[in-house]
Amino acid sequence: xxxxxxxxxxxxxxxxxxxxxxxxxxxxxxxxxxxxxxxxxxxxxxxxxxxxxxxxxxxxxxxxxxxxxxxxxxxxxxxxxxxxxxxxxxxxxxxxxxxxxxxxxxxxxxxxxxxxxxxxxxxxxxxxxxxxxxxxxxxxxxxxxxxxxxxxxxxxxxxxxxxxxxxxxxxxxxxxxxxxxxxxxxxxxxxxxxxxxxxxxxxxxxxxxxxxxxxxxxxxxxxxxxxxxxxxxxxxxxxxxxxxxxxxxxxxxxxxxxxxxxxxxxxxxxxxxxxxxxxxxxxxxxxxxxxxxxx
Length: 295
Fold this sequence. Notes:
Layout: H1 3-31, E1 40-46, E2 61-67, E3 86-87, E4 102-103, E5 118-125, E6 139-146, E7 156-176, E8 179-190, H2 192-204, E9 206-211, E10 225-226, H3 227-231, E11 263-267, E12 270-274, H4 280-285
Antiparallel strand pairs: 1-2, 3-4, 5-8, 6-7, 6-9, 7-8, 7-10, 11-12
């Protein structure tokens, strides 16, 4: 082998060794570099998604470290100070729980009821509850079907409430005989008078909810639907023909009968014109005429 080739091989080995040393030195320095430390503070957050009206328990809470420069205003550092308080809003997992989102008054749902209104609950099945799609914030119409003896001889369906806001909904399982039935509990925001209608409708018939478009706030005038309306359809009543009546007879006033003409009587060589004897009405008609003249 030539001398020049040996020199090139030695130089290549030296360069490769130098490069490997530099890379190792860089990696060692990067792993031992100190990360700047941030000051942190404990903050209580939601351990799971929480709805409004939830009374907080230890399982709902956990404590995490937050940078002190990013602490939310009104945050809590200990979970024990939150036990027993009630959420006023929805909270998502790991969301800091602050004082503005809690209520120490309790009640939960009652905090969302405006003055002079009431929260009334109805129990509906999956079909009558619009297949479980009714959620808080939706607006619905409430229909009732009455078919009990003594109420009506023919089943009737009528809309009893329109444009009602849903403020809560939930699903629970009831047992009917040996069969489990899933029912939905819907809480509606009503006036006291509408709460009475809702209670009576639920007691006497079957409740059904009709989901509305939230932008549609109109209320319509509707009429009860009977079975015959479904089978035959509504019958159009024939308009009664106008009755033409003859104008009333107006009797023209009768002219008073004139008395018969007078007669000429000759007595003792003198001719006299005697006035005829008149009935009372005739005498009135002749009132004001010149008196009888003697010839």
